Predict the structure.
Amino acid sequence: MMSSSVALMKAKEPLCLYDHSLLPLGDFEVYVRIEACGLGLADWNVAMRDAVPRTPLVLGQEAVGRVQVVGRGVKHLSIGSRVGITPLSTTCDTCDACSRGQLQYCANAFFHGFHVDGALCDVGLFVADQLIPAPDVLTGAQLAPLYGSGWTAMGALRAAGVKDGMRVVIFGVGGVGHLAVQYAKTLGAAVAVVDPDKSRAQFGITLGAQMVVDAVSVSKSLQAVWDGFDVAIVCTPSIQAITQACRAVGPGGTVMLLGHAPTTRIDVPLQDVVTRGLNVRGSFLGTLNDLQEVVALARTGVVVPTVERHPMSEAPDLLYKLRDGGFSGRLVFEPGR
Ligand SMILES: [Zn+2]
């Protein structure tokens, strides 16, 4: 089976279009014809690393497609099944994290677009176990971001205990943030957004946020207006945003860090964290329940990602523009266009 893809041929080199033969199908694997694949800062991080586990490496950690060929041992999928592909390729099912149901923190996990080839391709080979049945509603482009960005957004809100009546501030209204705004609303929270890009901040308002807070005066104005937030969701690896988030939450508040980069170190205001008893923590993806909730909200049309669609061939150029932002919603690439 031949595959056209977008790959990193060598660490830190520009991405390029890459045609190759897929490996023969194992008993517990499937070939999936990809409808659409989202790209975000996580992929940019991979492309910028000094070293990656293997090359050539096909990128892509969130996608939707249809099963084309099924390995002999696969029971839960058949030819034509629509599936979602998440960042997770395989987990061990035996470590402490797996035993707790936190597959995303598996000590022995392999990730798409990092340890193994990802989904930025027309046809790819995937381990069947971790593929999630996808609904037959919405386009592939609308569904693809749910399996990475959507899962991350909901996972963070649930891990932070967001519920009815809470006040939540979202830093960064991009691929993950624009979904976090909407999911926080569905959980009953009052939502504010912070984004240095005025059009993206305004985009947050159109999605249901009640307030935009000026990033420069954030520490003063946030507390003045709402007397401190219960939860801050920081979707960017910006050190400034993390500092602002620590000042934006009230006593006992939670600062949930989602944006990450391999070499970034954070600088938190210790006085705020200690004397106001803040809970500063990280969150990555979510539980399978969180993902199912995300898919259910999309199926009924309550929260559908806003996407900017491009042919797959444009991915190498556009990936490098991600760092500078400017996109409202998620960038998705379609091999069939
Ligand atoms: Zn494990």
About this structure: The two ends are 20 Å apart (CA to CA). The longest strand covers residues 29-39. The chain has a mean pLDDT of 93. Residues 33 and 324 are 31 Å apart (CA to CA).
